[in-house]
Specification:
Four copies of one chain form a homotetramer.
Chain A (H helix, E strand, L loop, with lengths): L2 E2 L4 E6 L5 E7 L10 H10 L16 E2 L3 E2 L2 E2 L4 E6 L10 H4 L7 H7 L17 H14 L4 E9 L8 H11 L5 E8 L13 H9 L5 E6 L10 H4 L18 E2 L2 E2 L4 E7 L9 E5 L4 E5 L10 H26 L4
Antiparallel strand pairs in A: 1-2, 2-3, 3-7, 4-7, 5-6, 8-9, 9-13, 10-13, 11-12, 14-15
Helix pairs in contact in A: 1-4, 1-8, 4-8, 6-8
Chain lengths: 332, 332, 332, 332
Amino acid sequence: MNHIGRLFQLSIYGESHGGAVGVVVDGIKPGIKLDKEDFNKDLTRRKSGSIGTTPRIEPDDVIIDSGVFNGYTTGAPISLRFLNTNTKSKDYSNLVKHPRPSHADYVANVKYDGFNDYRGGGHFSGRLTLGIVSAGVIAKKMLEGVEFKTTITNLGGETDKSKFQDILKKCVDDNDSVGGIIEVRVNNLPVGLGEPYFDSCESVISHLLFSIGGIKGVEFGIGFDGVDLYGSSYNDMIIDNTGKCKTNNNGGINGGITNGNEMVIRVAVKPTPSIGKPQDTFNFEHNMIEELKIEGRHDAAIILRAMVVVENAIAIGLADLKLINDALKKNV
Amino acid sequence: MNHIGRLFQLSIYGESHGGAVGVVVDGIKPGIKLDKEDFNKDLTRRKSGSIGTTPRIEPDDVIIDSGVFNGYTTGAPISLRFLNTNTKSKDYSNLVKHPRPSHADYVANVKYDGFNDYRGGGHFSGRLTLGIVSAGVIAKKMLEGVEFKTTITNLGGETDKSKFQDILKKCVDDNDSVGGIIEVRVNNLPVGLGEPYFDSCESVISHLLFSIGGIKGVEFGIGFDGVDLYGSSYNDMIIDNTGKCKTNNNGGINGGITNGNEMVIRVAVKPTPSIGKPQDTFNFEHNMIEELKIEGRHDAAIILRAMVVVENAIAIGLADLKLINDALKKNV
Amino acid sequence: MNHIGRLFQLSIYGESHGGAVGVVVDGIKPGIKLDKEDFNKDLTRRKSGSIGTTPRIEPDDVIIDSGVFNGYTTGAPISLRFLNTNTKSKDYSNLVKHPRPSHADYVANVKYDGFNDYRGGGHFSGRLTLGIVSAGVIAKKMLEGVEFKTTITNLGGETDKSKFQDILKKCVDDNDSVGGIIEVRVNNLPVGLGEPYFDSCESVISHLLFSIGGIKGVEFGIGFDGVDLYGSSYNDMIIDNTGKCKTNNNGGINGGITNGNEMVIRVAVKPTPSIGKPQDTFNFEHNMIEELKIEGRHDAAIILRAMVVVENAIAIGLADLKLINDALKKNV
Amino acid sequence: MNHIGRLFQLSIYGESHGGAVGVVVDGIKPGIKLDKEDFNKDLTRRKSGSIGTTPRIEPDDVIIDSGVFNGYTTGAPISLRFLNTNTKSKDYSNLVKHPRPSHADYVANVKYDGFNDYRGGGHFSGRLTLGIVSAGVIAKKMLEGVEFKTTITNLGGETDKSKFQDILKKCVDDNDSVGGIIEVRVNNLPVGLGEPYFDSCESVISHLLFSIGGIKGVEFGIGFDGVDLYGSSYNDMIIDNTGKCKTNNNGGINGGITNGNEMVIRVAVKPTPSIGKPQDTFNFEHNMIEELKIEGRHDAAIILRAMVVVENAIAIGLADLKLINDALKKNV
């Protein structure tokens, strides 16, 4: 349930207000240069700080408990851990009686019969994505030469990037939030990653992406817009002996397998469900609809911090598919 | 790679022109009434026949090799097999030299170093979906009371269903093809299906859906259109003590777990890549771009036959999640 | 449950008196020469016929439904199927009321609430081992150069092989049965197969071996007899730079990983539980102990036919471990 | 590789001289009372201290990083961690050049191309069993009412327990070591745990047991000694309508499934490979056989500390099988 991967494997754990969140990563080749500093860039990208992100600042220093020796991976599992240092001891029990809409509060309470750690979202907290980001750093090291370009192509319905700051400012002012679309373009992938049927590139990558809170849509290549095209326009004609295509409506994947063209993935991120604006929603203690005012300040646009999470989730899937493909290649 | 599921499990095999295609289904409760006739309805829905579908007619009678005794499931794996009877012995080797665009021909040839069975798409053939459809019939039996409604909401960019026949006819006349959007609505699901992180409803279901050839997008609830909404509009306010919501932008899933509201899933199906229209694409033997004319007749709109495949893939995921949820419930 | 393997994977299905038994094998490299004749040798070794084996003769011709094209593996899953042709239509329902001791009859009836196929042992039948044997044939092809030597070192307590025929004859005459010990020696394995912790050679191999009916003990190297030795005698001193050891008490495995010396595995096979001799055991219909006389003739020494099953189960485990080790090797 | 389990899952990590060793446990029902004190009993049983055990004393206090809230399990994964506090900073690099016989030193160096953490056995250290012991504590909580009795039935070839102290003393005096046989008897198991074929009780349990360092044999019931019996003596006659048997040669398991009788498991533990006595073994730097003198003091009989590891590994397997069996029971 909190584990994924066939060879390159992750086990995620933690809660927002517990001792730590972390991930155990397995299936790592030995001899890869790796130290704490390698995580800084992506962890910083995930951090809050800019307009539209929560002011809860945690140092988020990675603690490497195993699997690295003398600056190189050993081949044994790497345990990566992050302390929860900024856990305010306020009372969250009202979230059980008066669950936040669009959050996991209600379903978690039912599913776990009231035993779930509800503080700050508990195991459903966005802090769990620290594990994805840091495991993704290792995955990228396994994908030498592969390049990721990640952008926001739509924020709150707006596609003109020059207007994004205005939208964020308006959200903060209104105690509201926005979602948007993240696009990841992956280059320098070989032909052949992805396995027929259940380990197709799209299957493995979407599985990882949809485990990230707030992701409600995933598409490859032209995706949903492809419905406007007839087959004769949609089909990507091959134009040279490397498999390069004239168009890239398939987003670099045919039959679930990379075709050597740019991989294109877009994900829909819903607006941050926690907003400062009061909302009318059910209070299970009072058995009636009541206004809920969520205290504290929150990310007006979690999408800003989700960019690196999405990118690294994709890297994790590709690292696993690369190992599988390497293992099953014809003997020469 | 051709296996999926934690408890309710599938192993898929077969090629378009081999002896048979089939699936081994495991993790089935004993004592479920099941016989060959139970498969007819969904297998018929998958069959070609209507306008826009291929005239290759196979009887597609299911052969049950194991796991059913005296009309009931035994608890042992059920092997379901379909003979390939309509395999014309024509020469397909040109697909290796002159691969069809948007198909797996090229990537399969590279990945398997030329050893793949290329006849009729081989292991990448749509015939493999017989396994998904028939396993889904069993999955639905494990989901007593759950209801599926599956429709096409968009065909070739058109959303007015009264015009669908015209579009299909035009495609057939033009030797072209169209894609579209399939929407599945699932009702009567309990609260609590889906596990945190990697076994979220969206993860498990998208994994299955993206293993179906031609699916290039999956979204839940309002999906990609949700980017136009601010959080205050997007959030689904709970209105009673059963968890019922005023809106359903989250499509019945919060934090990866069913919330008791209708589950809503939409998938983008690309236009059938095989079209009669000539296409300019690379010929690897002649090392130049040449016109490719795909012989025979094909589905102008594979989406028509994909409806039941999509629906049953979803049922398979839900059946597995139900077993997991049942197993991990608090002891009473 | 009926599936195993990380990359080289098996899904087993079938019952003694159903339509067929079989296995779907996945994770096979493309380009391996394979045809029906390749299975004959090992299938013949599994067949009954010699003294001490059942006279139920089935042709046991393998049917290859997928994954092989033009005499070579394609990289897609291979479905191997065996028809059940010799299923006498006698009444087996007495086994439900009066279960055979040391058989699965009683536990299957409880576990599956009476819905299990009880005819001839159903899913627990030894016929299921056809899948292990035939999958093992493919595994051996993935293990080029590796050699297996399999012998019976103990039959009914006797270790002098010249007396085995007498023991078998006595068993047949007495309507009784014997067990024994099978020893497999594997040579030409590289150093490095097996993964730390849960994918140790011993773990993976014992898991497969104990899935075979009637196996009640597995040991590696000197095994249980090693308790008589002090560490200074037990330890295998390395004597050259290839890792060759003076002794081989560890049976070619250290820390779960092959060390390049001969792998030595022994398994204890219990006496065939079905015997002609009358036995006093509980009759659940009459609610009292009653004499049970098992009709028909049976293997007096199933161990004879188990030899190739054991050998091939080991090959299956090693093939998977080889793929994993190949995938996770340091990049050069 | 370092992960196991279908529903009740473990991910193990750590090295002897790294920051910590630990385990992430998933698939735990919510609402189980659990706190740090629950681990003390079994962790103490694993500790060194008595004659024959190493004097390296670590506090081995468990740190619970997640999954427990207000003294109860939440349903989320539980991360259990143990600090490595007693890691002397001596030079272990000689183990690379002059590997200890019967240890993983040599194979790890080859497999990981020299990048493995060789200090104190690294990832192959017995400290990793802290994860098994502590996960087993949780497993036992999932197995309410089930009872485990674990004894040493053979120490260094001796079965008279009154002589065990003499053997241990002699080993310590001689700088040598002994192995032996651990027997675990499990009572109050229901009929029906274990799945056909690859999830048989014996398969799942042996897989876990053989992942423990130094285990070289596993047998169930009468095990290897059963070869001396004819079928008519071996078969366990059922004597009442609860399935109770007159004898228990099958050790409580038929067809891989519990039959309600006592489960009996024995494992062969090899003598601790690290001994103080000098040993002649290969020095890869000098390319010749040389005397190796292993510094420090070691467990003369690791079997003493292995008892609780073996017991808890069995509990882990049974907890997983119980969840699976619960999930797949016929609906009532």
